[in-house]
Amino acid sequence: MIELINVTKIFPGAPSPSVDNVSFRVNQGNICVLLGPSGCGKTTILRMMNRLEEPSSGKILINSENTLKSDPSALRRSIGYVIQQTGLLPHRTVARNIALVPGLLGWPQEKINNRVDELLKLMGLDSGDIADKYPHQLSGGQMQRVGVARAMAADPPIMLMDEPFGAVDPIIRIRLQDEFLKLQQQVRKTICFVTHDINEAIKMADYLIIFNQGRLVQMGSPVEVLTSPADDFVLSLIGDDRGVKILDLTRAETLMEPADNISDDLLGSGCTVQSYQPVKLALEVMMKKNQDRVGVCRGNHLAGTLSWSDIKRHINKVSGEESEL
Ligand SMILES: Nc1ncnc2c1ncn2[C@@H]1O[C@H](COP(=O)(O)OP(=O)(O)OP(=O)(O)O)[C@@H](O)[C@H]1O
User: Fold this and answer.
1) With a 6 A CB cut-off, is 17 part of the ligand 1 pocket?
2) Record's superkingdom (predicted)?
């Protein structure tokens, strides 16, 4: 749906390209996360997608159309854009901020009002309480939700999200991430999401693209990147605890031993997880219950068990370490 082909951006007077010969594709309905340290060119890439910047060379296709041949205003109205500072207009109420793009597109007022109400509900905001407030009267979390609602107002198929949850505290941030992932299950937008937070990247990404100094250094699913980092830079970016991060992405059923000869005692003890839940949760349940294995259930039925030694073996395998932990 979005494709970059050999895109380079050199700002006037800059000693080196901010974006250096970058090519990648974002598939429809996926969240593609651009990850990398500050200044590696992530924001510039997003801004080139909606023509707030122009590439020095190369091209960007959206639905196979070269964006440089489209009308920039029409292009921007067809793409939702969320930035860290939310970009809300301070002199407009929440409702009028959300109504901005539908208004520019000439929607009838009643349709706009209904859409504003619908979006506030979707974002878990009480319309009666918040619609007539101004941005400075909102909490950080509310402001970020309104920023996302505004970007979604005209139901664009593509959303560009630049550190959209960066300005809130870690607890609200996790809540906003969870809410957004739940919402994405319903709306299935094509999303390019920028962050420099590895944990956020792993959590949000269907597909991860890593940059260093304007260059693309690795792309793949979070599990692929964690299990096979391309070089020392990626290794340092993802951190020493990549084994633990993988446990958060691995479903309990993939490591369990089948339940053939096991009694159902574990079921009674509450020392269980569901088959689709992450191995990391299984580890937490084990520690809480002071056990060295958990039951892995499908619904009410015990499908297998997962032991501490199964998990250790897995961590050693993905970390490529010979030694026992
Ligand atoms: N308008 C501009 N003029 C000149 N240089 C710019 C401009 N915009 C960005 N740059 C430079 O391009 C490089 C990449 O910046 P960019 O904002 O894309 O990085 P980033 O990875 O998004 O960083 P951050 O995570 O800090 O937002 C930086 O060196 C920055 O100084």
Assistant:
1) no
2) Bacteria
Give start and end residues of each alpha helix (H) in the chain: 42-49, 72-77, 94-98, 100-104, 109-122, 127-130, 140-152, 170-187, 198-204, 222-227, 232-238, 242-249, 252-255, 265-269, 279-289, 308-319
* Ligand 1 proximity of 84 Cβ (cutoff 6 Å): no
ipTM (interface pTM): 0.96
Task: With beta carbons less than 8 A apart as the criterion, state whether 94 and 138 touch.
Answer: yes
What confidence score (pLDDT) does residue 323 get?
41
Q: What pTM, to 2 d.p., does this model score?
A: 0.83
User: Is the shortest distance between the CB of 38 and ligand 1 below 6 Å?
Assistant: yes
Beta carbons of 34 and 19 less than 8 angstroms apart: no
3-state secondary structure of 161: strand
Which tokens sit at 284? Answer: 């937490």
Q: Sketch out the chain's domains with CATH numbers.
A: 2-241 (3.40.50.300), 247-319 (3.90.1280.20)
Which of 38, 43, 47, 161, when mutated, tests ligand 1's pocket best, judged by the most ligand atoms within 8 Å of its CB? 43
